[in-house]
């Protein structure tokens, strides 16, 4: 019997940033199930996303590639996507071309949220206190 995959969870943070937590193995199917709803959200005006891959313990190359492709589509749609990833996951994403995600690759959720909130406020650097929530 194959153990079930952990379910992704999502919640809204102050400033209109959707945070999606992903755990377990990350393959092409998982990447698609993660990114397609984000792409649909851009069509209704939601544009700031953090994908937290810190709890991902294995990334298949097809998953990294599919995620990189979707990340580029999100950027082209005007979305800001910031990704939280540990060293091994970051390496896999960079090898697949995801180093150009619009909100960057980050070691911590706090840094990824700051990047999204800063971009939401129209800046490029760290957010000002007035731009946060």
UniProtKB/TrEMBL annotation:
Q: Give start and end of each STAS domain.
A: 16-116
Q: Where is the signal peptide?
A: none
**Which InterPro entries does the protein's record reference?**
STAS_dom, STAS_dom_sf
Matching entries from SUPFAM superfamilies are given as:
SpoIIaa-like
Q: Which organism is it from?
A: Streptomyces xanthii
- In its UniProt entry, what is this protein called? STAS domain-containing protein
Entries under Pfam families matching the protein: STAS
